[in-house]
Amino acid sequence: MVHKMSCKYSNTKIHHLQVNGDEVTDIADIANSLAQTFSQNSSSHECTQKFDSDQHRAENNRLSFKSKNLETYNNSFSMDELTSAISKSHDLAVGPDDVHYQMPKHLPGAALETLLHVLNDIWINGNFPESWRTSAVIPVLKAGKDESDPSSYRPIALMSCICKIMERMINDCLVWYLEKQASQLCSMWIS
Description:
A two-stranded antiparallel ribbon has the order 1-2. It has 191 residues and is mainly alpha-helical. 49% of the residues lie in helices and 9% in strands. The protein has one domain (11-57, 73-190). It has seven helices and four strands.
């Protein structure tokens, strides 16, 4: 269980890569080769022309900020919303902050209250922690692919579990709000 919670141990070996006919063996060079491949695969040059035109059109639409933030999805989170989000968490690898999902699952009531207060401060005042803007990127070999080819790997970003709990709370709140709006629209159409 300690290994599972710390996620510091791995039984996988580091594979050498082949880049432009050269063998890459240095760990830093392997990391840089993978990062460069991930960056190229994620660049806008890899997108279809239709995607590019849709993106350009969407980015040129001006956003409307007429809201006074009185919608229910802008309210502070409740303890029920926090405990629900925590209970939906799976025991996955830890992010850069080394906080495992088992930690918030076993917090006593007073600590949960403190966590809720902090998350509500982030939500209401926009005090987004700088550390939540980073993640640890882990390369995972795609099934049946050549382990020496950098394009055979896909990146998995490990984020702070507290940040992911908050994301789940926001998502659940927005889903609830949209379902309520859809239900009201259906009721209006039926009447």
